[in-house]
Amino acid sequence: MNKTELVEAIAKQTGLTKAASEKAVKAFTNAVTKELKKKGKVQLVGFGTFETSKRAARTGKNPQTGATIKIPAATVPKFKAGKALKDLVNGNKK
């Protein structure tokens, strides 16, 4: 599912217009992004948690040349699914 399909699904389920649904999706992604930039986390009980994680510097290999390269440390976004979402995906609850 891409963004357009998500907007359509939200519009259909909520009765909102596609324009209003797109604003809602954009507002959600902006709010999550803003919080993650502050190194915070967004927890949606029953769905999951968006947070950041630090990745240490490491060495890697260029797959084309085989040359060793240094990969710098980075802060990366991470999503951890909640138990209720995992159960629904695995068919344990309806």
Provide the structure class.
alpha+beta
The CATH C-level class name of the largest domain: Few Secondary Structures
Outline type: elongated
Q: Main sheet: which strands, in order across?
A: 1-2-5
State the separation between the terminal residues, measured CA to CA: 21 Å
- Structural domain count: 2
Low-confidence stretches: none
Short description:
One of its GO terms (molecular function) is structural constituent of chromatin. It holds the Pfam family Bac_DNA_binding. The protein is of the alpha+beta class.
Can you walk me through this structure?
The protein has helices at 3-14, 18-37, 83-89, and strands at 42-44, 48-55, 58-61, 68-71, 74-81. With 94 residues, it is an alpha+beta fold. The chain folds into 2 domains: 1-38; 45-94, IHF-like DNA-binding proteins (HU Protein, Chain A, Irregular). It has a 3-stranded antiparallel β-sheet with strand order 1-2-5. A two-stranded antiparallel sheet has the order 3-4. β1 and β2 (48-55) form a beta hairpin. α1 packs across α2 (18-37). The chain is elongated and about 55 Å long. The two termini are 21 Å apart. The mean pLDDT is 94.
